[in-house]
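Continued from yesterday's entry.
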Amino acid sequence: MNCVNITGYLTKELSLKILENGTKVLNIRLANNQSKKNTSGEYEVCFFNMVAYNQIAENMCQHLKKGDRIGVTGKLISEQYRDKENRECEITKITIQHVDYLM
């Protein structure tokens, strides 16, 4: 089973990209406040990279903005790529399958 459920706040304005084949892609970063405090007495924050495609991506761009709170259901994926110095890199992100607007 590969299922992720998380709530958080959008960290930047949304920008929809359309690939040559017509696929609509939206990459976002979600800030999630943790329940424990750090040594300074502030709540820790985790950031999660996410991607949405086609209709979900389009709907998110139409209805959401930076700072909005959302709930996401998706699956965890890992992608490999080479950076500018030709080093092999890996990134883990969540592919969004469902979004709840919690504004």
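--- second protein ---
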Amino acid sequence: MSHTAHLTQPGLARITIHSADAETVNAVAYAIAAHLNATGPSQPYRIPGEDGVCVSQYGYAQPPPAEGDQPVRHTVSGL
């Protein structure tokens, strides 16, 4: 099964952070989660043959309107 098989929803992305140590990857992942619509990090893991550790997390960004769609305009009455 592909690691990306579940990424079928537009706007959903897997973020992989790779650094020399677990403290750094976790700090970066938590900073991303604090400022964006993202999950916390996975458990740190190693990729065979590579130095350092990784964590994965998932983020969501509202996709832009499809080409030809009109943006939603909000109006305030009484102004």
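The two ends are 56 Å apart (CA to CA). The chain has a mean pLDDT of 83. Will compare against the first tomorrow.
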